Amino acid sequence: MAATLLVLVAAAAAAVANAAYPSLVSTLLPKYTGAVAYDFAGTSVAAANNIVAVGVPQSDLFYIDVAYEFGSYGNGYVNLYQCQPAALPPTCALANTVLPPLSTWPKFETSAFGAAVALSSDGTLLAVTAPFYEIKT
Amino acid sequence: MFHCPQPTNCTLIRTPYTFASTRYQLGTSISLASVGNAQYIVVGVPNAASGYGGFYFLHCASTSTCDEINSQHLYVAQYGRFLGNATAINPTGNLVVAGDAGSGLSYIFLYSCTTESLCTSVGSYQDPNANGMSYTQKHGFKKDYP
User: Fold this and answer.
1) pTM of the shown model
2) Cα A99 to Cα A76: distance, rounded to the nearest angstrom
3) CB contact under 8 A, A120 and B10
4) Residue range B3-45, pLDDT digits in tens
5) Taking CB atoms and an 8 Å limit, are B7 and A128 in contact across chains?
6) Using a CB cutoff of 8 Å and minimum separation of 24, what contacts does A38-44 make?
7) Which of A16, B13, B29, B64 is 20 to 30 A from residue B106's alpha carbon, by CA?
8) What is the ipTM score, two decimals?
9) Please, which residues 44-73 of chain B have a Cβ atom closer than 8 Å to chain A?
């Protein structure tokens, strides 16, 4: 499943590259951070008023019964990009990386910060989810 | 929820809202409508394993927390369906669209939700190619399946 998702992300990045968005592509490429840890860049996206939010839930691989499941131990982040759609070609630059508020965040096992993102129409409000998936052992 | 007057400057303005359920895939989808100083949020809670699913409808007033004002859950228990896998809300915060994917049974449901009344279904759409049968069941695999 991980390989499939990474391939999908890579394919999406390639499609964007063909549309001449080089600065965005360079920051959206998935990062391989370890043997069982992945950043799922592009799992969720939102756009409003020249702001693009990209959720990057981080997932680890757990072996459960006879199958593998993904969880993240509360990790993940949201990248905010500021875009100039009127430029030729249009460009987007990474403006901020929003991390989970760990001081108040109930850091459930397997919750994945950034699994879904939403922006208000003016782009100034960002809502983020960290879905919990129960692991049965 | 974060307030980002500039994309480089985000501050947490709403404390995390925690749902009691542990089995549903809470927060698989989220949509936001900002109306004045309040926000309306719809959070999809599909449960692909059981065929259950639904969404929560939250109202966030000027205080730091959000309140659940409504919700909709379908207990169809139909394998492969999971209401809430995708959600959307209109800018005024009173119309919710929720996807309900499934193996040959995919739906889109349209709900009307207000702070005064329960969410009610006001329309739905089903893929005409998925009315209870898989594509291959209807058309045959070798002949028509691309």
Assistant:
1) 0.72
2) 7
3) no
4) 999 999 999 888 777 766 555 566 678 999 999 888 999 988 8
5) no
6) A38/A2, A38/A5, A38/A6, A40/A5, A40/A9, A41/A9, A41/A79, A42/A9, A42/A12, A42/A13, A43/A114, A43/A115, A44/A114, A44/A115, A44/A116, A44/A117
7) A16
8) 0.75
9) 44
